[in-house]
Amino acid sequence: SLADRLMAEGQAEEAEAQLREAAEALQTPEAWFALANLRRQAEEPELARDAVERALELAPGDPEELRFVLADLLAELGELEEAERLAGELTEPAYRDIVRGRILLERGEPAEALEALGSGIQAWPNNAAARLLAAEAALDLGDTERSMIELREATRLSAEDNNAALLLGRLYLARGDADSATTLLRRHVDAQGVTGAEAHLLLASAEAQRGRLDRARKWLEELREQEAFEGRAVAELARLELRASGARAAIQILEESGLDLTDPRHEPAARQWIALLLAAGEVERARAWAAEVAESDAPALQALRGDLLLELGEEVAARTVFVASL
Description:
mainly alpha, globular, 20 helices
């Protein structure tokens, strides 16, 4: 329960530490499986695999649920032959179909993947992860309607699933349905808090699409309070200002933000600032920034410097910078 609460508050490392301590102390398959689920939720499939394998070692009778999860993780990690071997040993058709669907999707066969996943979902309709995979397969096939149906079900079944909610929000926005995007993403943020930048950025885009720039700014200011996302938030605030009042006002937002635009953490803001300077004809100020970061060992800043040199027609110098960045 404590680990769940920590995850909901965005403290993934602390949550993982709680469950790891419990698993190591209890040495039960249930404890290791709980740790595996948390690690997968935190998008650490390799660590999740280790925990599932430990659960299997401790579990009596080689339970099929654990073997299904391991096969699914192996497919996610790209170990497709081993995943296929394990899937062939599963007796539950839903388990077998879902793993097979993921394998086919990883192999670039979305039509076959969607067929297998559809069969698995029919037998196991409340599997949110399988529905997300089906949505991805449908998108690969250009079937947006099917994708959105699967995503709506996935978000209903698993409110904490960031990937499903964010993908559905992007699809709503691409359709111009900012009202549905706002409703979905607000519900998601209320349930999850700040787990990344994307939900707030999409909410700001949705509010801007509806002409509600003040509300868009509110979402970006809320995101800005998170130090890790401050650069992205300020960059988006500048884009809003560009739309509302023009380039000079947008440049002012960036320059009065208090951000160090030579700090790699703030690269999104620096990138927006450089673009605005070039659009305003202030090339020498952009060159001065490039000179200031020339000795930086931050790949993100060097990549931006290379883009600037390329924009200025200095292709040889840009190539050198890109090679150094790589």
